[in-house]
Write a structure and sequence with these properties.
Layout lengths: L1 E2 L3 H19 L10 H7 L8 H19 L2 E14 L2 E6 L13 H15 L5 E6 L3 E8 L2 H9 L13 H11 L6 E7 L8 H9 L2 E7 L6 E2 L9 E2 L2 E2 L1 E2 L6 H5 L5 E3 L5 H13 L3 E13 L2 H15 L7 H12 L3 H22 L2 H15 L2 H13 L3 H10 L5 H18 L2 H14 L3 H53 L5 H7 L11 H59 L24
Parallel strand pairs: 3-4, 3-6, 6-7, 7-12
Antiparallel strand pairs: 1-2, 2-13, 4-5, 8-11, 9-10
Helix pairs in contact: 1-3, 3-10, 4-5, 4-9, 6-7, 12-13, 13-14, 14-15, 15-16, 16-17, 17-18
Length: 603
């Protein structure tokens, strides 16, 4: 056991001992004027505590409170804390086209609000700001100080840079220079896209410098005139310019591994963008530190001090010695649950050590015993993990079911691990359901991959069973055809042995329906053999055509399925295009690039 704040013991216990030493040795006020025997005669007989007894209790109360302030605790090991960040650089377009009011109050102000929302959503990420038009300038380097970044962002406007135009290559150059690491760099671009049709140079530069670009298109497809601060409208060759969203910039995002989203009037677009960035980005470890973990024990001396204070300030008289001992022992020692809680850490420590050393069976047993005694969901969860490592998947499934968490993160992990256990057990359907439950709570890439793998295995099982059924049906059909042929040949032999006059029986056996006459028996037999040959040829031809149709049908169904999926996605895309509303749209297909326009626009 150790004290987290031993300074309380050093500086408060000595004055306490001195103070109560004086109080306990001090005589009563009247004892200075009267002899002890006279005081005994004058003192009324009561059952209340004496002054010395009451002072002694107050002394114990003060001592226990100081011990509680010193925070006694038991060491439980060390925990490594790591500081990680994705390092997001935000490029902010402040060209004159961002003054267009198609997004209220203007594209520039709307983009500022988006970035401020992002700063609130990402307090644990390092974020930097780059402002650009014709040239790019670093406004704020990567920093955890989101308040300072927000302050600098609010000061940006189109007059911050005098050069006119929009140059995305300069942005990529600045980002590459500000981040010297060899790993991936993540750039969030807020712009209306400028006027370029071909971003192949920017895509090549981004791939060369290992930059993943995310683009938030801050404009509408209808567009609007550009209104300057003095109220005039921007004109080009005597005509008022209508600035629209350039969706070709989506190529810069999709072809560098990022995401393109069109802005909306709400903040859902920037929140979704941040989720996509965190999902794709690789967090870089900036700093790590080991912190000592403790089991606090301060509440035990504090509880004892409160109990003694109650006795010292009560109006109860003197109690018998045996009763006093019983009450104190009951209050301080007869608390089995408290003792169990104090010693629980020892069992948990043994279980943790067993798990780390690979003794999963022993760890599962210890965690399971603690879980049954305390009904702690974390212990059930740890026991399930140990059972899973020990390849006892059924026990792991039962333990995962008993672990009920209020935290969304832990619940998602539980369902994900439960899906793993079901998959190992061979119950793929329940595994898929568990993965889906996990993804409903928290979006996770590994869980998605596991779910896709389980679904593929389920589809494979269904296709294998279907192929087996088809083979069985074909085998049964071929057996039936063979039996029917045997029956027909038997009928022929019997018809030869029978006499000519049995017309009724011969008409039932022969499919061609030809007349049975004694004079034409040879012709009917020849005709029958020709019909049988024709029938066999037609059946063989039908079987071949059926197999071809099956092959074409299977391949055609796969193609149709792909076409149906693409048609649905295409209908969603067309619906969004025709709606005319500002919303975020993912890039589905790459548009054909056109020739680079050398006639650069001055806005």
């Amino acid at each position: 056991m150790t004290f987290l704040h031993p300074e309380f013991l050093y500086y408060m216990l000595p004055p306490l001992f001195i103070l109560f030493g004086l109080l306990l040795t001090q005589k009563e006020q009247f004892a200075t004027f009267f002899a002890p025997d006279v005081m005994d005669r004058l003192r009324a007989s009561t059952n209340s505590l004496t002054l010395k007894a009451r002072n002694a209790l107050f002394f114990l109360v003060g001592f226990l409170i100081i011990v509680a302030l010193a925070e006694p605790a038991i060491k439980e090991g060390t925990v490594e804390i790591k500081a990680k960040s994705a390092d997001i650089m935000i490029a902010f377009d402040i060209s004159d086209s961002m003054l267009a009011p198609d997004i209220y109050p203007s594209r520039l102000e709307a983009a500022k609000q988006k970035v401020l929302t992002l700063l609130e959503e990402a307090p644990n990420e390092r974020i930097g700001i780059v402002a650009f038009a014709k040239n790019s300038y670093l406004v704020s380097p990567l920093s955890f100080d989101t308040a300072a970044v927000a302050f600098l962002l609010r000061k940006l406007d189109t007059s911050s840079i005098t050069e006119k135009g929009t140059d995305f290559l300069s942005v990529l150059n600045v980002v590459s220079k500000t981040q010297k690491n060899n790993g991936k760099k993540y750039l969030l671009l807020l712009s209306d896209g400028g006027d370029k049709d071909d971003f192949s140079d920017e895509i090549e530069a981004a791939k060369k410098d290992n930059i993943v670009v995310f683009v938030l298109g801050v404009a509408t497809k209808k567009g609007s005139p550009i209104k300057l601060e003095d109220g005039t409208l921007v004109k080009y060759k005597g005509e008022i310019i209508i600035s629209k969203l350039n969706e070709n910039i989506a190529d810069l995002a999709t072809k560098t591994g990022g995401v393109y989203i069109q802005s909306s009037t709400s903040s859902d677009d920037i929140k979704r963008m941040f989720k996509e960035i965190t999902k794709i980005s690789e967090e870089r470890e900036l700093k790590s530190e080991e912190v000592q973990k403790h089991k606090p024990l301060f509440y035990y001396p504090l509880a004892a001090a409160l109990f003694l204070l109650l006795i010292a300030t009560s109006s109860l008289g003197k109690i018998k010695k045996g009763a006093a001992v019983f009450i104190l022992s009951f209050a301080l020692f007869n608390v089995p649950q408290a003792e169990a809680e104090i010693l629980d850490f020892m069992d948990l420590k043994k279980a943790k050590e067993a798990y780390e050393s690979g003794s999963y069976s022993e760890a599962a047993k210890l965690y399971d015993e603690h879980a049954q005694n305390s009904q702690n969901p974390q212990s059930y969860y740890n026991a399930a993990n140990a059972y899973y490592k020990d390849k006892k998947y059924q026990e792991a499934i039962e333990a995962y079911k008993k672990a009920v968490f209020e935290s969304e993160d832990l619940s998602a992990k539980k369902f994900s691990n439960l899906g793993n256990a079901y998959a190992k057990e061979g119950d793929l359907q329940k595994a898929a359901e568990a993965y889906e439950s996990s993804l409903e709570i928290l979006d996770d890439i590994e869980t998605k991959e596991n779910l896709e793998e389980v679904k593929k295995r389920l589809e494979k099982q269904k296709s294998d069973s279907k192929e087996g059924d088809d083979k069985q049906e074909k085998q049964e059909q071929s057996d039936k055809e063979q039996n029917s042929k045997d029956d027909k040949s038997g009928d022929k032999d019997s018809s030869k042995k029978d006499e000519k006059g049995d017309k009724k029986e011969d008409s039932k056996k022969e499919e061609s329906g030809e007349k049975k006459e004694d004079s034409n028996e040879k012709e009917s037999e020849a005709k029958e053999s020709d019909d049988n040959k024709t029938e066999q040829k037609s059946k063989a031809q039908d079987m071949k055509e059926g197999e071809k149709n099956d092959e074409n049908g299977s391949s055609g169904s796969a193609e149709m399925q792909n076409e149906i999926m693409s048609d649905e996605e295409q209908m969603k895309w067309i619906k969004q295009l025709n709606s005319g509303n500002a919303t975020f749209l993912y890039r589905l297909n790459d548009e054909e690039t056109t020739q680079k326009n050398s006639d650069e626009k001055p806005w």
